[in-house]
Amino acid sequence: MRAGRWRQKVAVGLMMIGLGAGCEEEPRDHLIEGQRALASKDAELAEQHLEAALAAEPNLFEARRLMVDVEIMRGDYARAEAELNALWQARGFDRQQGLSTAERGARRLMADQYNKLYRAWASDIDRESHPEVFEEVALKALSSKSRDTSVNEMLRAFYRERADRFIDQGDKVSAARELEKIQRLRTFPDTRQEYLDQARRLRREAFFEDARSRFAAEIQPELEASGAYDAENERILLAIEQPVDRRLSPTSEESTIQARAMARQTLIPTLAQLAVSIGGLDAETVDIGAMNVPPGEVEQEQFRVGRYDMVAAFTLESLMEMAFEYAEEQRKEHGEPDAGTRGEPADAPGEDARESAP
């Protein structure tokens, strides 16, 4: 009888030990509970479970990754970014080759996390008070997922608003720069072209306004003094007298066309100099051969054997257009330092690294 009771006590004791061991939660259990807490928007509870999981298994990748979501939920975006960057680098996700299937899957998850982080961060920024910060963060969101429709639209609206604000302030060039940034976004081709066309119009208006002021102050008085400016019609009159081949006949239409073409050619350096002065261009770097010279109109001409004289008229607008077109081509070719394009910080992996995994 005593032996039976002893066996019963031993059995109960073993059962209790087994139940006690079963009550100790594994790291994976805490991970699951942490995921559930995140789904319920409970950052505090999620952090408790994830920290418990990491205490038991410090290198548990998924727990470290989900701790970033806790920081995002709390709005501590800078810390979330730092933790995400550290984890990305620790896992070696910058490399393009040699990743296992599981590692490629983990990298895709983190790529989505980068986009989630920057999208939430950008949404919380006061765009009017901190426009530079908003733009930087929103561009980071696009660097992680360039096809994100909501971020593209967010930036498009931001650049449009900024452009309108600059227009109200009378700063057309800065407005044009904002509109030109839209071409980097994923929008409809017609939308991009619409903004580019508007940006060009704004640049042209600003250029012409400056050119007219410069012309009136620095060039017009001298031209009027020499009788070379028709103020009523805003035309510049250029006279040329030059010898021509004596074999050219004044009575031949073909010879007249040839003599006229040579006279126009001779006028090109003078026209270029005028356009450079009117447009405020750098005379030392201008390539005259790259400028589109307006044809002008022949006001007077006299052709006799061995000599051709001509007075040609060129509108002020045509010379401003000549300078503007050249300035625009140079700007596009060499860039515009003060326009600026913001890149992402070196710490943050780019879109190629984040989205290239199959």
TrEMBL record:
Region Disordered, residue ranges: 327-358
Chain intervals with Basic and acidic residues compositional bias: 328-358
Pfam families tied to this protein: TPR_19
Protein name per UniProt: Tetratricopeptide repeat protein
Organism of provenance: Lujinxingia sediminis
Lineage: Bacteria, Deltaproteobacteria, Bradymonadales, Lujinxingiaceae, Lujinxingia
